[in-house]
Amino acid sequence: MKFYRERLNWKKVKLIKKDIPLVGYESKANRDNNDCWFFMMKFPFKRIKNKNKWASSVLGKDNSTVDEVYEYHKTLLEKRYIKLGWTKKEAHQDANSSIRPLRKLVCLRFC
């Protein structure tokens, strides 16, 4: 850490989040490639207090809902697991269990 503190300007560091962006903050997804699972958080971090506005930020389209974010991530997770050789049933079950923490975070942040 000392190396980075001495050589980097911390004010310009961007946070890159894997799989799911920070809940409640504006993000910019790598939407050029649907298989890419990294989100870059815009600096300075902009707090979003409306869950549908956050969902629009995540999906990159207007008037998105949080349920669409859940479905989008669940579908991508299922595809990822199937590519890894899992059965459809296993992929579906694991994708559902991976979405539960996201639902909990969204509820804590916006409810």
Written overview of the protein:
With 111 residues, the chain is mostly helical. It has one domain. It has four helices and three strands. A three-stranded antiparallel sheet has the order 1-3-2. Strand 2 and strand 3 form a beta hairpin. The protein is globular, with a radius of gyration of 16 Å. The model has no long low-confidence stretch (mean pLDDT 78).
Topology (elements, then pairings):
Layout: H1 2-7, E1 16-18, E2 27-29, E3 38-41, H2 51-59, H3 66-83, H4 88-110
Antiparallel strand pairs: 1-3, 2-3
Helix pairs in contact: 2-3, 3-4
* SSE succession: HEEEHHH
Q: Which runs of at least 5 residues are low in confidence (pLDDT < 50)?
A: none
The largest sheet has its strands arranged as 1-3-2
The average pLDDT value, as a whole number, equals: 78
Main beta-sheet strand count, sense and barrel state: 3 strands, antiparallel
Q: Rg, please?
A: 16 Å
Q: Ends: how far apart?
A: 36 Å
Name the beta content range. Answer: 5-15%
Helix content: 40-55%
Number of domains: 1
Q: What is the tally of beta strands? A: 3
Query: What spatial form do the alpha-carbon principal axes imply?
Result: globular
